[in-house]
Structure formats: C-alpha cells, structure tokens
Amino acid sequence: MIDDAIRVLAGDCTVIAENGDREEYRGRVTTIVKPDNTVLVHDTDGYQPVAWLTRADSVSSDRTGDFTLVAKKDTQTLRIAAHEQDGFAHYPSSAAGTPIGTCPDCDGTLVRSSGVHCVGCGDEYGVPADATVREDQCDCDCGLPKMRVERGLAFNVCLDRGCESLDAAVKEAFDREWDCPEPDCDGDLRILRRGGLIAGCEHYPDCEIGFAVPAGVVDGECGCGLPTFETASGIRCLDATCDRALEGPLESDAAADD
Ligand SMILES: [Zn+2]
Ligand SMILES: [Zn+2]
Ligand SMILES: [Zn+2]
Ligand SMILES: [Zn+2]
After folding, report:
1. What is the CA(106)–ligand 3 centre distance, in A?
2. CB 172: neighbour CB atoms within 10 A?
C-alpha cells in the first residue's frame, strides 16, 4: 500500500518564521507538508512559498483549540496557527515518474522514478539506474514489463527479481568466464553479489581481486587480459583502474603508444 502522505492545511493562518530574527504573516494560506518533512506555506502572491522549511527534523501538530503546526530544524522554527480552518487532510502520495506500463495486480499505472512503482497499489520494484524499460517491449509471462540491462551482454529480464533474476542471467553467461588477473593466482572470476554485481576471484579471501561488473557490453580484450566493455562513457576494462583498455589484446602492442 501507499504509506507516504502529503498533508495539507488550508485556512486563515498566522505564520511565524524564526531563525534568529522573526517574521510574522497572516493570510488565507495553504500549507503543504511533504513526506520528507519539507513544509511549504503558499499564498496567492507569486509562485514562491511565503514561508518554508526544507526537511525539518520534526513536524508536530496540535488540533486542540486553534490548529497549530510546528516545524523545527536546527535554529529554525516555523509555526502555523489556523484561526479559521478551511481544510485539513492527508492525501496518499507517491513519487511521480515516466509511465512505463500497467500493473498486473491492480491495473494501475507503473511509473519509473528511482525504481519502478505502481501508482495504484504501491508495489515497488528496485531496478538498476541504467536499466531501460520501454512500453514497446514484450511483457514477462507474469504481466510485468521487462527491463533491458547491460552487464557484459544485454539482458532482458522481468522487473521483479523474484520472477526472473538478473543476477542468475549474468552468472549463467559469465561465471568462470574470465581468469583472475593476479599473476600468482590460478583462480577463475565468479559472478556474485556484494552490494552490486561483482566478478570476484574464487580464492577469496586468499585473493582479494574483485571488480564491479560495468554497465555495458563486452566488446573485446584489454591489454591486461581482462575483457573490455563498451559503456555509455566509452570503452573500459573490467578493472576500472586499468588504463590499457584501448591497447587491444596482449599479442598486439601496435597501439601501445597512443
Ligand atoms: Zn498495482
Ligand atoms: Zn515476471
Ligand atoms: Zn585470484
Ligand atoms: Zn585492463
């Protein structure tokens, strides 16, 4: 379910903003309290709030007598007291994002913001930042859209990791595909998740070699022997600290001077 709410208080209010000095306003205003405790007091004049406090440490309200709302952050205090209340409500709210499909559970709209969530039922799916989800792609059998993610190859997998695992697909394609580059180590690189997806030596912890799998497609071999990846920012080695990606494989040293 959607837990986040935007609180709205409208009415004839006194607004007192204190931060060393003290400003007082009176007017028929609308106050919005966002889920991150940002408080915005809007009047009819111009587009800017008449008073605000971003990401307050605390926002408390008292409904006995005149309705009051007090927001505090460090040395700042914002007090709103309603003399005559036109409305007070909590509205369920979600992040807004690009629509990318339809929720198979509730027919609500799926949108992409930091992750993907359903505006209807609030279901959330964590997706990598570089994943693309397009409405013209075929849906998964479960009804959810698929995402395209580049991790050595371009994978099309379900938005729901529980339905179709990106990790399993990358593992299937690249587990033990590459040799550990450590000179005195005969290990293979295994695909595993430690925070992000990494290619790490099978002899860990004796050998601590491990590289985050880049967001890109394998397109060749680096001068160091590891694969190179074509990424949004250019060709790079699996080892982000290696600068030999443009040399080509070990056999050819022609471009070594570039
Ligand atoms: Zn839904
Ligand atoms: Zn699925
Ligand atoms: Zn190793
Ligand atoms: Zn390299």
Report:
1. 48
2. 11
